[in-house]
Every structure is written in C-alpha cells, then in structure tokens.
Known about the structure:
Layout: H1 2-38, H2 40-55, H3 62-87, H4 95-113, H5 117-140, H6 146-165, E1 170-171, H7 174-177, E2 182-183, E3 186-187, H8 188-206, H9 208-218, H10 220-225, H11 230-256, E4 258-259, H12 267-277, H13 289-308, H14 313-338
Antiparallel strand pairs: 1-4, 2-3
Amino acid sequence: xxxxxxxxxxxxxxxxxxxxxxxxxxxxxxxxxxxxxxxxxxxxxxxxxxxxxxxxxxxxxxxxxxxxxxxxxxxxxxxxxxxxxxxxxxxxxxxxxxxxxxxxxxxxxxxxxxxxxxxxxxxxxxxxxxxxxxxxxxxxxxxxxxxxxxxxxxxxxxxxxxxxxxxxxxxxxxxxxxxxxxxxxxxxxxxxxxxxxxxxxxxxxxxxxxxxxxxxxxxxxxxxxxxxxxxxxxxxxxxxxxxxxxxxxxxxxxxxxxxxxxxxxxxxxxxxxxxxxxxxxxxxxxxxxxxxxxxxxxxxxxxxxxxxxxxxxxxxxxxxxxxxxxxxxxxxxxxxxxx
Length: 339
C-alpha cells in the first residue's frame, strides 16, 4: 500500500513537471499568434513595405516617405476624431463635409469679412465643434440613429459650404496656409498629425472621458446605470470629432492655399477604414490612437505603392476594399477568440 502511494506521488510531480515543460511552448506560440491578431495592421504594414521595397527601389527613399506622411496626414487627423466615435459604438458620416465647412468658413471670414488670419483659424475649428455638437445632440437627446443624424449633417455641411463659396475656391489666411508648409525640413501636416494623435492617445488612455467612452461602447446601458452622464459624453465625443474634422480641413486648405468647395468628398470612408484597419471594433468598446495612425499610414502606403507601380486608380479602389474586408474579418476572429 505504501509502495503504491509512493509510486503515485512520485509519478504525479513528473506529470506536473512534464505539463509545465510543455505549456510554455503552447503559451508562447499562442501569445505570438494573439499578438499578431491584435496587431494585424502593423504586421500588414511591415509586410507591405518590405514587398514594395523589393518591387521598386523608389519606395524606401526619404522624399517618398515624407510624401507618404503628408498624404496620410489629413485622413489620419479625421480618423483620430472618428476613433472617439467608433469607440462609443457610433459612426460619423459628416466628417468630410465638416472639414470642408470649417475650412471654407475660415477662408470666407478672412477674404470677405477681413478678420485676422489667426481668428479665422479659430473660427474654422469652432464651426467644426458646433457641427459635431449638433450631431451629438441629435443622437443623444433627439434619439436619432447616428447613421441618420450624421448623414443629415453631411448634407447640411456640404450645402452650406457650397452656399458660402458659390461653388468657387476662396483664398485662405496666411495662418491657415502655414499648416500646409514645410519649416526646417519638417512638413507641418505631419507635425499636426503627430500632435492630433498625441491628444487622441492622451484623451483615450489618460482621462476619465476616455475611460467613459470605452464604457459606453462596451455597454451603454450599464454605463448609464453606473452613473455616467452618457448623453453629455456623446455630445462631447461628436464635438471632438467635429474639431478634428475642421483641423483636417484647415490642413488640407493650407496645402492648397485656398478652401475648396468639394474638399473632403469621400474622406469619411477613408477615416472609418483607417480606424477599422487599426483594430477598432465597429461594435464599440475598443480602439486606440496608435492603431488608427497605422491604419491611415497603411492606406497611404497602399496608394503610394500602387502609384509607383503604375497601377490604375480603379484597381486601387478594389485593393483598398479588400484590405477593409480583411480588417473586419480580423475583428470578427478577434472577438470570437476573446469570448
């Protein structure tokens, strides 16, 4: 009896020890796979850059990389604002039109009214905030679906832009034009993109407002029952998205030295795509500034690389559509594995 017990006890540690020896291997491979799943956009960006470097020597050059940064700046700034909205399980289809409205209003007050340039820049940002706040009030207090409320704002903002401009470009203020210039070798659009990203990261990860956004996106009813002022937070979220949209419009205008009535058309889709590619879930409750930045850069790299390879713009749309579908597929898989 004692011999049997001794054998049993001696065999058990061996089994446990064996289990512990095997487990780290499975755990390591599992953690690597999970990391790649959670950082699919970064992995995709690295693979894409390596592939384009092999395909063409013109890709990994300093001028071209700077060009990619400038090209991604406007979409990235829009996407940072969209990140707040998508984290709360919302959507904003108006950011492209609000970008045009903020820029056009700024240019109008400079060229037609004669206000100082820095004041017109602030007016442009305020118009973005106001448009976003109106959308947020319609959603939070008017109970309109986010899709409908922002779709209406998209039409209204574009219409006001066309009324102000009468369909023609308006020269912008020097203070706005400065946002599109290069100083000491640093393009201002890239600098503005970096600053906008830092603010987005700080709000999401270091403030009560950011934590509240994740709570609302995870479960709005639970957030309300826990005492969060859900309606006020939603208004703030859409107002923030409006400010980011106006800033993107001003950066775009600075590069052209004039406000264009058709600026930002279709940019809302690129912004949504950048956020989703960056790992945010359209169901809400997840998303981060770094992922959004990678998503925006990935879109710019795809367009830039295909342009260098002389691929038709028609095919570029197909490729970007496939990338978006793959990103959403990763999101579905990630949600299943997390359950």
